[in-house]
Specification:
Number of helices: 3
Strand order of the largest sheet: 3-7-6-5-4
Shape: rod-shaped
Helix content: 25-40%
Order of helices and strands: EEHHEHEEEE
Largest sheet: 5 strands, antiparallel
Oligomer: single chain
Distance between the termini: 58 Å
Mean pLDDT: 91
Strand content: 25-35%
Number of strands: 7
Radius of gyration: 23 Å
Length: 119
């Protein structure tokens, strides 16, 4: 019994349980099916990578202090980070991968690098 490819409609030869005529059609179909989710994840990953690049650029010596306006001017988005670390005193460090920041008041941030993520 002939079946049609669920992606392009071409007749499929071979096994009776085949759904696609080729690997390309299978990939196109699945990529289209997951497009919205993939775009959402891709956009978030792009923001996280940009945040990390900004922190790396502003913190060349792996420990520095920077004003919030300088971070924002470069396009930093404070809504996105990969994890947090709370100290014993209750201070919260926010991290974009190994690059972190801590609010130290008056719109200034301490920038740090989490050493266990490096090397």
């Amino acid at each position: 019994m002939d079946k049609d490819c669920i992606n392009c409609g071409t007749k499929i030869a071979g096994r009776s349980d085949k759904k696609f005529c080729s690997e390309q059609c299978r990939n196109e179909y699945n990529n289209q099916l997951n497009k919205d989710v993939n775009n959402y994840v891709r956009n978030i990953n792009n923001v996280l990578r940009k945040n990390r690049r900004i922190l790396t650029e502003l913190n060349p010596d792996e420990k520095s202090k920077v004003h919030k306006d300088k971070m924002l001017a470069k396009g930093f988005d404070f809504n996105y980070y990969t994890n947090t670390y709370t100290t014993k005193t209750g201070s919260i460090y926010y991290f974009c991968y190994e690059q972190g920041y801590l609010s130290i008041g008056n719109d200034f941030y301490a920038l740090v690098v989490k050493k266990e993520f490096v090397d």
